[in-house]
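Database export, one record per block. Field names are fixed; values are copied verbatim from the stored entry.
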Amino acid sequence: MSADSITAAGRPAGRAVPRVLADLVAGAGTHARARGGAPRNAALVLGGTLFLIAAGFIVIPLPFTPVPVSLATFAVLLTGASLGPVRAAASAGLYLALGALGAPIFADGASGVLFPSFGYIVGYVLAAVAVGALARRRADRHVLSTVGASVLGTLLVYAAGVPWLALSLGVDLGTALALGVVPFLIGDAIKIAAVSALLPSAWKLLKR
């Protein structure tokens, strides 16, 4: 799940992450101004957060794991690809902050940080940044690259979620993978396909 595998042609893989972070810092202000200024960007960030909240409430509890099936990952991937790294990260970060501070906006009305699936919510912020950064590099202009970016985003959600799940439940990593990854693989494939299918409509809505 390493972002080191994402690299520009002719550049060492290990330099990919610093280059993406440099893009975020150097380009955030210009990118935001080009997209309509502070009021529009604030509205898009808030809209992304509301989208995450709504998607997170669409859940299917599973009796054998404390991690429910939800549409939140789908919302994170679509938000990242359509809003870009800065606004998508702000949307996911606001979602995380509000819920961590006690607003019952996580799946099943959960809040705070002391529950087994909170690590996945931390992963949403990572996924939003990664997918958004790749989208800015035009990875969202082709189906295969969109799928690749979405797969990376999904893996980042798991990278944060599974260790937290293991620690929270007091189980080993293999058990955490069985509880927090394996049951969701088919659903994640469907979500990734849906992101690829819906992204052109998101572009039109945002007038990209």
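Remark 1: Confidence is low (pLDDT under 50) at residues 1-34.
Remark 2: The CA atoms of residues 31 and 37 lie 9 Å apart.
End of record.
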